[in-house]
Design a protein that fits this description.
- The strands form three sheets. Strands 2, 4, 5, 6, 9, 12 and 13 form a seven-stranded mixed beta sheet that branches.
- The protein contains no helices and 13 strands.
- Strand 5 and strand 6 form a beta hairpin.
- It is an all-beta fold.
Length: 122
């Protein structure tokens, strides 16, 4: 079965940085759409970053220029480097696979990790 396990979350001060990791098992990264979502309490789930099958990386406007998505295909591992964090970035961050993209927008996914909490204090 497909399993996604996130790590790297924590509490940081505004302006700080974190790098999230996601290790996938049960399937190959080849040809899959992979990325990250986040959800804050009381808010809707938001697609943060995703890589399409053609290698194009899509970022949410809210994180563009601050977050960087990367992957290590041989190790089935995804990364999300987060810089210049603000309290608005506080959320549960989820690794995801088989992401659905509509007109360049990150919509949803078929597989999810359990999440890792990121808390940014002011």
């Amino acid at each position: 079965q497909v399993q996604l396990v996130e790590s790297g979350g924590g509490s940081v001060q505004s302006g700080g940085s974190l790098r999230l990791s996601c290790v996938a098992s049960g399937y190959s990264f080849s040809g899959r759409r992979l990325g990250w979502f986040r959800q804050a309490p009381g808010k809707e789930r938001e697609g943060v970053a995703a890589i399409a099958r053609d290698g194009t990386i899509i970022y949410a406007d809210s994180v563009k220029g601050r977050f960087t998505f990367s992957q290590d295909i041989t190790r089935n591992t995804l990364y999300l480097a987060m810089n210049r964090l603000t309290p608005e970035d506080t959320a549960m961050y989820y690794c995801a696979a088989d992401i659905l993209l509509w007109s360049g927008t990150i919509k949803t996914a078929g597989y999810w990790g359990r999440g890792t909490q990121v808390t940014v204090s002011s």
